[in-house]
Amino acid sequence: MEGRAVVREAHEARVRSARERFFVRGDDAVDGVASLVLRSWSRCAEGGIDFRAAVDRDPAGRAMLAELRERSGDLLGQAGGIMEHVFEQIRASGSMVILADAEGVILHSLGDPDFVGRAQRVALQPGATWGEAVRGTNAIGTALVEQTPIEVCGGEHFLDRNGFLTCSASPVFDPHGRLAGVLDISGDYRNYQPHTLALVRLSVQLLEKRLFEHRFARDLVLAFHTRPEYVGSLQEGLIAVSCDGQLLGMNGAARECLGGAVGESPGRTLDNLFRLSFGTLLDRAGRDPASLLAVELRNGQQVYMRLKTSVPMRVEAAPARAADAPAARPRSAAKPCQGVTLDDLATGDAQLQLALDRGARILGKDIPLLIQGESGVGKELFARAFHHSGPRRDGPFVALNCAAIPENLIESELFGYSGGAFTGARREGAVGKIQQAHGGTLFLDEIGDMPLGMQARLLRVLQERSVTPVGGSAQVAVDISLVCATHRTLRELVREGSFREDLYYRVNGLTVTLPALRERSDIRRIVMSLLACEAGGEGEREVGISEEVMSFFERYPWPGNVRQLQNVIRVAVALLDEDEALILPRHLPEDLFGTDEFDGAKGVADDTRREASWPAAGGHGVPATASLDEIELQAISQAMRDTGGNVSAAARRLGISRNTLYRKLGRMS
Ligand SMILES: Nc1ncnc2c1ncn2[C@@H]1O[C@H](COP(=O)(O)OP(=O)(O)OP(=O)(O)O)[C@@H](O)[C@H]1O
Q1: Do 368 and 301 reside in the same domain of the chain?
Q2: Which DSSP symbol is given to 269?
Q3: What is the ipTM, given to two decimal places?
Q4: What percent of the residues of the chain are helix, what percent strand, and what percent coil, each to the nearest 5?
Q5: Domain end: 498, 515, 532, which one?
Q6: Statement: residue 604 has pLDDT above 50
Q7: Is 276 in the same domain as 308?
Q8: What's the mean per-residue pLDDT of the chain?
Q9: Total domains in the fold of the chain
Q10: Which amino acids bring their CB within 6 angstroms of ligand 1?
Q11: Ligand 1 centroid, distance to 565 Cα (angstroms)
Q12: How far is the CA of 489 from the centre of ligand 1 (A)?
């Protein structure tokens, strides 16, 4: 501790003497401060900044700040969690974590209350500009000018009044190599920590990686490094390419490794960078996605590479062959991943196709979409696909499940709140979901569960297209596309008085109803698509499914719909031994269908296709001569029809356990 004080004093003395020579004697070739700092002092002096200046420009007004935040929406969206994490590391050290935009305007900050008060006296707060031309040498502004990480301690700040600060900042570049902003940690100079700049640099690397992954979530991403152990680390180079090999973007590490000669100008392809064709790369990566490929750069240097993609690299049952590069190309339809589109969801069912076609017709039109369907049918996936298919695809998709959060939190979640709006509120306030969705899509799941009071406020937002955060007075304009979902019938809720009629007409510009899985005719294709996803995580193992299991899947009533089927497949894949590649009845979860029962059912598996709706077993009551089995069949069919295929409810009605009912259903099919 003492040693650190000695070092600080020596630094202070050096800087004091350098200031004296620079500011008082006008000597511009002083030693004692880093050349970056001296360069900045010279710029500031030439720009006419007075180092004794005491007056701060006013921070940007609220509306202005909201607009700037909106412009840096991606940056803020990705930085929020990282800043909170960094703040946790430095909590109680009398510091602040600050995010500023590319002009040096502070967009967001998190700080220790003790220090925040002092920082505000020098306008180190959201809305204030810390560009070098305004506030002289400081870490935020100078990091932006020099485009490099920098530490500015005590008297190295150009303005006398900022001499109590120590600040470490690093510029943040977007996935196209453009300056997006700057991350900074500022604190009291007396608490200077030599590791702070390293923490800032690491955080910025993580932030840039997140920005990159977010921007190219739907594309192919190549991760590489000259050293194999660095692939997968924060230092890895990342290149995004389209499905036909065009360069879309690269991160700083990739740029550095590839040298200045390469850019992602239109028409540039991977072949311009590496000594291997895009097709060969896909083929090799498709054959062995888990391992690293040794690839040569055009300059002959060797790098190690892995293809990272959210879309699977292989066709479900067909082995990828070396000579057949197109077979290894990613199939966008296979995985219900982030970038899924309406076209990807078309797997052949007529009722679903109707919903997809209707949804596609209103893309880009200002018409709210209401998605109806049982739980687990894929309403949220449909909403995401709708978002990714339309002109807002590059904007945010923000989801809120109205049934999953406590009623008293819905308001602040949706509308946000201003600083100190209520007990427990964060000092700096929070941006609500509606504002977060600006420029993109707001998905309100289980809208039928929204409390009436909230419905009135939501209606106002939809009518006025602006939102007022809780505790705030300023309105913030919002431009959102609204998609709502419900497993209940909203019209009935209106009739019961629990859903506002005016809001009902606002949210259901177009209603689409997604079919329950038991009603769908494309179960085979869904199974194969889910299998490709689930087995994809298991390395490059080719996993198939036995006909016995498949035909059972086709007849099973799936009360939990696609979600249940997905879980069953996930469990089955997990239960496969290492040398097994075929899902058999014994891999199915026991509660779904025990092996004995399955054997009982398979006699009818091949020739009896279960009808979409439950048969009325004759439809005229139980015949006088009915056997016990027929009576049972009649009772079960009736219960299943009455409960819309809900096994739990039907079991309750019949007075038997769910497992017993599943067993009996299996025998019946
Ligand atoms: N066509 C599909 N292909 C692959 N997976 C699907 C498909 N449809 C749905 N899923 C998967 O099934 C699960 C349930 O889907 P989702 O959450 O969209 O349903 P939901 O109707 O919104 O459910 P809830 O009403 O309970 O919120 C998700 O994991 C989703 O990825």
Answers
A1: no
A2: B
A3: 0.97
A4: 45, 15, 40
A5: 515
A6: no
A7: yes
A8: 79
A9: 4
A10: 336, 345, 373, 375-381, 445, 485, 487, 526, 529-530, 562-563, 566
A11: 10
A12: 19
